[in-house]
Design goal:
mainly alpha, 9 helices
């Protein structure tokens, strides 16, 4: 049952929706980047690791894929050999299943990277130090000018950001400061 719009779980639900949208965007980006690989063929070490690798032909008993032959290219890497055994169970020797597995792996890596970056940037020490700074372009450049008032680039970028926000008097002041620091 949906909660009323004024309920206390609305922010949590909104956060969940934002994360779901981010995951969907990552999925679309991953598919856009790698979709042309699905109909591809095996190349390079794929022949040794997949086509000629007898240890991936069956998932059971465990011993077969746990001990891949060294010449297979996945010798000493049982997890990689296990994923190839799963792919073989799904699609045999058809390259599409291996490529789909690779796309899923890239998507998973993108999700993990997104989560790590998101959690890092939302940590209280970073949020407290930089959260307000990153709220707008003007705040970012104003903070930069406050820290480096002799930077013509920071003054000029602050002036440009203020101009885009139609804050003309402030834009003129920042632009003039940039020109004083670095006349052309």
């Amino acid at each position: 049952m949906l909660a009323p719009s004024g309920s206390t779980d609305s922010p949590a639900r909104a956060a969940l929706v934002r994360r779901a949208i981010a995951a969907a965007v990552l999925a679309v980006a991953t598919l856009a980047a790698y979709h042309t690989n699905l109909p591809g063929t095996f190349v390079l070490d794929d022949f040794a690791a997949v086509v000629e690798n007898a240890s991936i032909r069956q998932l059971w008993p465990l011993g077969a894929w746990l001990a891949a032959p060294p010449e297979a290219g996945v010798g000493g890497r049982p997890f990689a050999n296990f994923t190839f055994a799963l792919n073989h169970a799904i699609g045999g020797r058809e390259p599409w299943s291996y490529h789909a597995g690779n796309i899923a792996l890239h998507f998973s890596a993108a999700l993990v990277l997104f989560a790590v970056v998101r959690r890092t940037l939302l940590r209280p020490p970073l949020r407290g130090q930089h959260g307000a700074t990153f709220q707008s372009e003007i705040a970012l450049w104003a903070d930069t000018v406050a820290k480096r008032p002799a930077s013509a680039r920071a003054q000029g970028n602050l002036g440009a950001a203020l101009l885009r926000a139609n804050r003309l008097p402030e834009s003129m002041a920042a632009s003039e400061a940039a020109l004083r620091l670095r006349p052309r």
